[in-house]
Design brief:
The chain has helices at residues 4-15, 27-32, 103-106; strands at residues 47-51, 65-74, 79-83, 89-92, 95-97. Strands 4-3-2-1-5 form a 5-stranded antiparallel beta sheet. The protein contains 3 helices and 5 strands. The chain has one domain. It is of the alpha+beta class and 110 residues long. Residues 48-106 form the Retroviral polymerase SH3-like domain. It holds the Pfam family SH3_retrovirus. This is Retroviral polymerase SH3-like domain-containing protein. One of its GO terms (molecular function) is nucleic acid binding.
């Protein structure tokens, strides 16, 4: 239940970029007049190594990225939304997704 809100927001983001037979185009095209870019779409719940900004890093030699769970797109800032282990949302434009991750590991009960 902890990801329902994020899942609904991301599903809506995807639906607005999906062709509809009712309007014979995508809702996004209807609103903005051009085709949507879908290259940023990722699998909900997949993991990524997310860059830690220099201002938030600890001492020299510390980690420069963290492994976080992808939970959607922030439409206002055009950043990806990630959730950490304490269920806080982290926004970032700099992430490397683990595309070859085992599906059962991605959707475990953590």
């Amino acid at each position: 239940m902890k990801y329902w809100g994020e899942a609904i927001m991301y599903a809506n983001h995807i639906i607005n970029r999906t062709w509809s037979s009712v309007i014979d185009q995508t809702p996004y095209f209807m609103l903005y007049g051009h085709k949507p870019d879908i290259s940023h779409l990722q699998t909900f719940g997949s993991y990524a190594m997310v860059n830690i900004p220099k201002q938030q890093r600890g001492q020299k030699g510390g980690p420069i990225s963290r492994r976080l769970k992808f939970v959607g797109i922030d439409n206002a800032s055009k950043c990806s939304r990630f959730m950490d282990s304490s269920h806080r949302v982290v926004l970032s434009r700099s992430a490397v997704f683990e595309e070859d991750a085992d599906w059962s590991r991605i959707h475990s009960n953590d």
